[in-house]
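Handout, section B. The chain below has 202 residues.
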Amino acid sequence: MTKNTFLDVPFAEKDVAKSLGAKWAKEQGKWYVPEGLNIAPFARWLPKEIHDEGLVALGRVYIAKSVSDCNRCGNSTNVFCLASDGYEFEGMADWKCFVTYSNVQQVPPLLSQLLMDVVPTYRPDYSSTQGRTLYMNHCDCGAKQGDYYLHSEPGGAFCPMSPREAEKITLYQINLSLRKIPLCAQEHFSDPDYIESHARRL
């Protein structure tokens, strides 16, 4: 069986990746480096690893809400993620970088209970793509909504490409007795950050 290396290629850079030899996997909806091709030129698109430890949400922490079309039934469904006004990784802090989090594996008990009470459709479930249990969104039809499209595809629910798209996102501030919230997750940030500047805050 061939071993391909999947990439996180923004739509705007797909032609560059293709010119370097990347191929499109229709079933997975991702670009990949075919086995045997030098992976070095593709380093900037290699998926960020999910941090098992050392990642901490700083400042104000939010539950972000947006909408997306269900990948099974096609209906519009509410989707959620965690976000914060800053983050820390392995002791290096950035208090001014707005961050959303995907592929969340673990959160503190207080936050876990809050998510269960407030957004029951965003809950731990097994991802066959990741091969692990993660917090995942669920449509009313029961279908799991993977985080890749929501966070990494331009125009995805938490990857707005314009102020208008970001205005569809609502940030609900979480009030917990925790100054820092440790997470096992993957962080996302962008420049310009339309979510920080144009999402509604409640």
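Note. The helical segments are 14-19, 109-118, 147-152, 163-166, 194-198. Compare this with the example in section A.
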